[in-house]
Design a protein that fits this description.
Length: about 270
């Protein structure tokens, strides 16, 4: 179980710290960057720059400062800019108890795609106006404490819309799925049914995970797909009957793909 990751819990940021001559990253940005990286397993520097509204050069300098203070590690793990991830000290500074490790090489494309989805959502005016928040797959996995079954499935993230939000989605929880490469139609349909039928939070007793008569946990499942995966997801949705109304399909943002990697070769 992990404690709440709150920018205020990151005790490493200090106001007005210089990362490049004449330019600064302020305490709020510093803390927000650390928390975001902690929740998403890791982040490429161009995404860190977008998150904090700074240049990629500034993002690199900030990551180097974190590394010098033993809060983070950085390396070029694959195509495109360097990756940054938090060490045990960095995770502890953010108040979370995740296992410290660099992003798995086999998951780089998927981690980038999910991070880009989150960045795009959090930049949307409607998301900001509603004070919606993202709950990461890493947080959901930590809540389970290793109790995830071999055939169980965690969403890539959840979007929570506050009850008092000024929109039609007030009070809803959405499951977010990034689909880069197609699974089988049967497996994709099974995942959709699992997400749509769940009633309990992740980490709840097994008997509460799916209780007939209770409202579903996920009002909607949002699939963001590559062109290669879209057809399979569409066919899986078509096999759901009336449940299909709660599954929405979108294409992944262009920036969701690893730089210098063609979509045909991108793997989840």
């Amino acid at each position: 179980m992990t404690t709440s990751a709150d920018p205020a819990a990151c005790q490493t940021a200090q106001a007005g710290q210089t990362v490049h001559a004449g330019q600064t990253v302020h305490a709020g940005q510093d803390a927000a960057g650390l928390v975001f990286v902690a929740e998403m397993y890791g982040l490429q520097l161009d995404q860190l720059a977008f998150l904090l509204s700074i240049s990629t050069r500034q993002a690199g300098a900030l990551a180097s400062r974190w590394t010098n203070r033993k809060l983070a590690g950085t390396a070029r793990l694959g195509p495109g800019p360097r990756w940054v991830w938090l060490t045990r000290a960095g995770l502890q500074a953010c108040g979370v108890r995740y296992a410290p490790a660099p992003p798995a090489l086999s998951r780089l494309a998927h981690i980038r795609a999910v991070s880009e989805i989150r960045l795009a959502l959090e930049a949307a005016p409607g998301y900001q106006a509603a004070a919606a928040h993202w709950r990461s797959e890493r947080r959901l996995r930590a809540r389970l404490g290793g109790r995830l079954g071999a055939r169980d499935h965690l969403p890539d993230g959840e979007v929570h819309w506050p009850d008092a939000g000024p929109d039609a989605w007030a009070g809803e929880c959405w499951a977010i799925e990034a689909e880069l490469t197609p699974k089988t139609v049967s497996r994709t349909t099974a995942i959709m049914r699992e997400l749509l039928s769940r009633t309990g939070d992740y980490g709840c007793p097994a008997a509460e995970a799916r209780v007939p008569g209770l409202p579903p946990r996920h009002a909607r499942v949002i699939y963001l797909c590559s062109p290669a995966a879209a057809g399979t997801v569409q066919r899986a949705r078509g096999a759901l009957g009336s449940l299909a109304e709660r599954v929405e399909l979108r294409f992944l943002p262009d920036r969701a793909y690893l730089p210098a990697t063609s979509r045909a070769r991108t793997s989840e």
